[in-house]
Amino acid sequence: MIENSGRCIKKILFKPENAIEYECNNFNEDSLNFIRKIYENCPSIEYLTITFPPSEEHFAEFEKLLKICQNIKSLLIIIYNVDKIETSEKILENGKILLEILVRSAPTNLKEIRFYEDFKFSLENLEDFLEKWRDINNNNFTKNSPEEVTLSLNYTAPSENNGGMNNTRCFGIFQFKLKLIMQI
User: Residue 86: pLDDT band by 50, 70, 90 thresholds?
Assistant: First the structure.
């Protein structure tokens, strides 16, 4: 269907839970092919839900998609590893890689980034991302304290959970489900 769209598809959206429940013996290969089909056949896509495992090859293809599809306004990213359960350290590393890719390659039209499933960002990596993102997109981020980064006045107070802080923070046009890892 994507290949026969005449390069006119503007939206590919699906519920995150549907992506995770997708059972396929070839998830890694299928998700890689999906990313490639998008950037080859949908260069004008504006709204995209994308799911892939955290492999080096998938991250590289995702970055290529961002560089080619310059009209993306909204992006829902689901990183899901069907092969193994990731350690907390590996999930943090994947989060860092993803934020670096977004800073390097995200289109200037991108105004909404949503993460679903198991994402973790260290406070340092998140602050670095927000600073660079602000510089690239001229967004008005403010940094209020080491634990609190906001864009606009929308802020939901953190709640303690499992030694970290889980909360939802609204950054105006951005909404992040954050797991801030507090280093003592």
Answer: confident
Distances in whole angstroms, Cα of residue 174 to Cα of each of 33, 47, 110, 111, 142: 28, 14, 10, 7, 14
Please state the domain extents for the chain.
Answer: 1-119, 121-184
Nearest-angstrom CA–CA distance, 24 and 168: 31
Question: What does pTM read for this prediction?
Answer: 0.71
HEC-encoded secondary structure of 40-77: HHCCCCCEEEEEECCCHHHHHHHHHHHHHCCCCCEEEE
Cβ-contact 159, 168 below 8 angstroms: no
CA dihedral sign of residues 36, 37, 38, 42: positive
**CA distances for 72 relative to 61, 101, 111, 147, 167, angstroms:** 16, 15, 8, 30, 26
Q: What is the pLDDT confidence band of residue 142, given thresholds at 50, 70 and 90?
A: very low
Residues 171, 141 contacting (CB under 8 angstroms): yes
Alpha-carbon distance values, 57 to 35, 103, 129 (Å): 11, 18, 22
Six-digit token pair at 73? 């306004």
Whether residue 13 contacts residue 49, with contact meaning beta carbons closer than 8 Å, is answered with: yes
Question: Which of 69, 57, 76, 74 is CA-nearest to residue 15?
Answer: 76
What DSSP designation does 158 have? -
* Phi, psi dihedrals of residue 156, rounded to the nearest 5°: -105, 125
